[in-house]
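Researcher: Quick test of sequence recovery. Tokens follow.
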């Protein structure tokens, strides 16, 4: 008899995006004359950079010629992409070896798959509110999960507590959904906590390219000794607009060593290599050539133009909210504005208000954890025109 993984019974049904879509389509059907502006999207909207398209087109042509055709590639990615990433990291002061970087089809997959190399006996520390993937992937393994609260008291940047014993810690900076970004001093405290407790930090840097101040770390590996206690998960989705193209990477430093329950030491880099070579067959050659181009100096320049477009949208949004007196977080180092719902409204009450009174769609904060209740996420991924119009409606409607 095949029994199923009963941990799946412990997952909460996620109705968030389905509920939003349902409410929006019902409203649109009842009010066909109204223009609805969607600022709930957590997806990029700008097209791929020209040099990325050129590199992928060239790679497609190579695949059609006998001499340059390629079959299976290395599971952990081609060296040309490792080398491009080594050079990219060097631009913000981080030295990596090629074999510390593992190319994948995205950070969401790696977030889920990385659970393979940790014991189910670990206690997992997860911020609240946060990207729901960290929580659900660990519920699927039946692990003990504890939360650290983000709120106005810590500017949505929870800090380590010596009374809390955690084995695996998820950090996301700049954060989805709050837009908050840890300073170097704050990350030093997390690294110190992890080293003291032999814990491992899983650092999600998906929004590193949005960091607008060189003093704010774009990688946890700018912190001394982080290579002894951290794995970095990153993605080309937000950096280069690869949400549909699919490519990401995970950095597992060779200095990262932890024990089995009976005391044998294992290098996590070797474990991850073994995991990937066993269960994964690599990212398409064509996509990796596109990613290589995106991390070249010309690619970085072109991708930055798209990021600058979203950053300008975020600036317009912050300028609007400043006029309303509504308290908000994020926007500076992130494409997300995380705002406190006005007049004590709950997340869903504010959702209904924005949709029905102003025809604007956002994401209720309660969808990102209990501590997200009373907050709301808007994104800067919309078009300039829609962002400007939405903010005019908000400024006039909430004065
Ligand atoms: C968008 C996002 C990712 C990227 O996921 P991909 O699978 O690479 O598209 C990872 N983490 C967070 C917090 C995100 O918002």
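Model:
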């Amino acid at each position: 008899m095949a029994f199923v993984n009963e941990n799946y019974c412990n997952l909460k049904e996620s109705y968030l995006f389905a509920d939003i879509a349902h409410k929006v389509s019902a409203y649109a059907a009842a009010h066909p004359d109204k223009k609805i502006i969607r600022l709930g999207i957590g997806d990029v909207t700008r097209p791929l950079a020209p040099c990325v398209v050129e590199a992928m087109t060239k790679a497609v042509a190579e695949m059609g010629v006998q001499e340059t055709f390629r079959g299976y590639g290395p599971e952990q990615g081609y060296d040309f992409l490792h080398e491009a990433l080594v050079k990219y990291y060097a631009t913000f002061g981080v030295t990596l070896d090629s074999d510390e970087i593992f190319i994948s089809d995205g950070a969401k997959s790696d977030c889920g798959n990385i659970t393979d190399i940790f014991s189910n006996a670990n206690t997992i520390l997860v911020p609240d509110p946060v990207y729901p993937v960290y929580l659900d992937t660990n519920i699927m393994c039946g692990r003990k999960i504890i939360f650290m609260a983000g709120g106005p008291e810590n500017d949505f940047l929870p800090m380590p507590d010596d009374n809390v014993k955690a084995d695996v810690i998820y950090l996301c900076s700049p954060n989805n959904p709050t837009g908050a970004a840890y300073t170097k001093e704050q990350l030093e405290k997390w690294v110190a906590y992890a080293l003291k407790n032999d814990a491992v930090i899983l650092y999600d840097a998906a929004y590193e390219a949005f960091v607008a101040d060189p003093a704010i770390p774009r990688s946890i590996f700018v912190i001394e000794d982080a290579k002894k206690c951290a794995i970095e998960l990153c993605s080309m989705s937000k950096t280069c607009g690869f949400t549909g193209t699919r490519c990401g990477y995970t950095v597992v430093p060779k200095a990262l060593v932890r024990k089995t329950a009976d005391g044998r030491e294992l290098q996590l880099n070797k474990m991850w290599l073994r995991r990937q070579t066993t269960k994964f067959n690599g990212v398409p050659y064509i996509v990796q050539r596109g990613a290589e181009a995106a991390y070249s100096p010309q690619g970085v320049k072109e991708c930055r133009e798209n990021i600058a477009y979203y950053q300008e949208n975020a600036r317009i949004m912050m300028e609007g909210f400043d006029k309303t007196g509504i308290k908000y977080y994020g926007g500076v180092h992130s494409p997300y504005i995380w705002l406190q719902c006005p007049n004590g409204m709950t997340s869903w009450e504010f959702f209904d208000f924005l949709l029905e009174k102003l025809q604007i769609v956002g994401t209720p904060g309660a969808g990102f954890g209990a501590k997200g209740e009373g907050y709301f996420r808007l994104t800067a991924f919309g078009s300039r025109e829609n962002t400007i119009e939405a903010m005019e409606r908000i400024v006039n409607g909430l004065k």
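The pocket of pyridoxal-5'-phosphate is lined by residues 106-108, 131, 172, 176, 204, 206, 235, 237-238, 243, 248 (CB under 6 Å).
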